[in-house]
Amino acid sequence: MTLRLAIAGAAGRMGRELARIVHATEGCTLAGGLEAKASPAVGSDYGEMIGLGKLGVSISDSPEAVLAACDGIIDFTVPKATLALVPLTAAQQKIHVIGTTGIDAAGDEAIRAAAAKTCIIKTGNFSLGVNLLAALVKKAAAALGEDFDIEVLEMHHRMKIDAPSGTALLLGQSAADGRAISLREKSVRVRDGHTGARNAGDIGFATLRGGTVVGDHTVIFAGNGERLELRHVAESRELFARGAVKAALWGKGQKPGLYSMMDVLGLN
Questions:
Q1: Which entry of 96, 122, 138, 156 is annotated as an active-site residue?
Q2: What separation in angstroms does the CA of 223 have from each of 24, 102, 141, 186?
Q3: Residue 229, Cβ neighbours under 10 Å: how many?
């Protein structure tokens, strides 16, 4: 049976890319778009907006109406919008694919609670390459031990609103898991002024912003006299969209729970 998918943040750059990929992917169909009430896109035909011609699929500002017409929703928006949508998808038992970054600990707890009622797939990055990189980072962190310092370097376009990126945090968490330590306790986000020597076991993050960079991530393992760098470069938002659609299709028929792209790819 065809999976009917809606897109939250329908008129944004990622929303448009997702809609095009959903329309082009076998096994699913574009069922609707959700936008904020003030958006000029509300009431538009989604197909015409993304250059596919009239599809008879409208963009709405009503989450209830959009969810009633779909089996699942893909959500790359902002934390406030995602957290408002989560209880609704849980109540209606709709698949909820979340690519929103910058969600705080309380928000993550609300998502975990909602996952008791429906299938939620949430990750900092939906690319195959990044998730393979995360698996390699975990193995390297475990193998190299604390003689190697870990730094995560990321760069994104000038319009990105959260830092470090969700992908950087995903990679940092993988390193922490490899070392069996708490990322929250060992994470260093800012260095400024007279900081003193680096503490053993810390996982550092450095953030760069500029231009139209889609996403560059490097995990550096710096030892005595040698350095290992594991890197991923994203060249198009299409790879994230394809991964998110793949995740939604995987979620069809899954039991309620909180899943990641690692589950989708069989890497867990």
A1: 156
A2: 46, 31, 12, 18
A3: 11
59's CB contacts (< 8 A; 6+ apart) are 10, 11, 32, 33, 34, 35, 39, 41, 42, 43, 44, 45, 46, 49
Does 160 participate in catalysis according to the annotation?
Answer: yes
186 belongs to the catalytic site: no
Q: Which of 140-144, 160-164, 171-175 is predicted least confidently?
A: 160-164
Lookup: tokens for 27: 């096994």
Categorise residue 181: left if φ over 0, alpha if ψ from -120 to 50, beta otherwise: beta
- pLDDT at position 1 is 84
Q: Which helix (H) or strand (E) holds 208?
A: strand 203-209
Decide: helix, strand or coil at residue 205.
strand
Closest CA to 82 of 58, 114, 57: 114
Instruction: Report the half-sphere exposure of 136 (CA within 13 A, side-chain side).
Output: 15
Q: How far is CA 62 from CA 32, 43, 195, in A?
A: 11, 11, 50
Nearest to 219 by CA among 178, 262, 182: 178
Active-site residue (options: 23, 117, 160, 252): 160
The pLDDT score that the predictor gives to residue 101 is 87
pLDDT for 145 equals 85
pLDDT for 186 equals 96
Instruction: Please state, as a whole number, how many other Cβ atoms lie within 10 Å of the Cβ of residue 148.
Output: 17
Which residues have a Cβ under 8 Å from the Cβ of 158 and sit 6 or more positions away? Answer: 209, 210, 211, 212
